[in-house]
Amino acid sequence: MSSRVSASPAVALTIAGSDNSCGAGIQADLKTFTACGVYGLTAVTCVVSEVPGCVEKVQAVSPAVLRSQIRILFDHYPIAAVKTGMLYSRALLRVVSEELADRLGMFHLVVDPVMVASSGDPLLKKDAVRAYQEELLPLADVITPNLDEAAVLLGRKINTRAAMIPAAEELRGRYGAAVLLKGGHLRGREAVDILCSPRGTEEMVMKRLSGCETHGTGCTLSAAVAAGLARGQSLKTAAANSKKFLHGALSKQLCWRRGQQRTRALRHS
Questions:
Q1: Which of 36, 46, 196, 219 is catalytic?
Q2: What is the model's pTM?
Q3: What is the pLDDT of residue 156?
Q4: How far apart are the C-alpha atoms of 40 and 14, rounded to whole Å?
C-alpha cells in the first residue's frame, strides 16, 4: 500500500456507475469525498436509471470511453486513492484492471465489488465475476464486500455473525488484500463489520438504527474509507471513521412522500 499523501486537499477517484437518484454510485461517492475533506474525481462506467428499491435501465459506456476517463485524470491530478464501485461487465472490469495495474504504488486502491443493488436487481453480468477474482481483487489494498458479495466470491452463504470472521480471513488469504466485510444484512441489535488486515482481525460494532430503508450504504462506506486513506489515515482509523460517518448519515436520513410512495436518502453531512 502506498504511503503517498498528496497536497491539500487530497484527491480521490471513484470509478463507478451513475445513480440518477443520487443515493448511491458516483453521486454518493462525491458527496462522501466532499464531506470527508477530499477532492473527488469520477470515471463513469454506466448510467443507471433507478430510485431506491428499483433499477429500471442500465447503459454501459464503451471500454474506450472508460479508459480515456481514467488516463486523462491520472495525467492531470495527484490521485492519492481510487475507489471502484459498479463495473458491470467483464470488458469494463478489464479496462479498470489494466489501467490501475500500470500505476500500482501511486495510490491506495479500495475495491467495493458491487454485484447486486439493495433492491435485488443485478448490477454485474455473470461472466464478470471471474474478472473480479482474477484481475481486479488481487490489485486491491482493501476490499469491502457485503455478505451477499462475499458469498459469491467464496461460493458459500454467510448467515451468522460467527461466520463473518473466517469468511473475511479466507478472502484476505485469497487476494492478499485487507478486507472490510460489511454485516449490515444480518439481523440483530448491532451492526457488525469485520476488519481483517495484516495487523489482525477485529469486529467493528455499532448500535443498529431502526427504520432505515435507503440505498447506497455500501458505496458511502467504501468511499469514506478511500477518503481516509487519501488523507493519510491508517486503515484502522479510516475504517472506524467510515463506520461512524455512515452511522451519522443514516441517523440523519432524508425522506420524501409522493402519493403512496416514500423515498429515503442518506444525508452526507
A1: 219
A2: 0.92
A3: 94
A4: 7
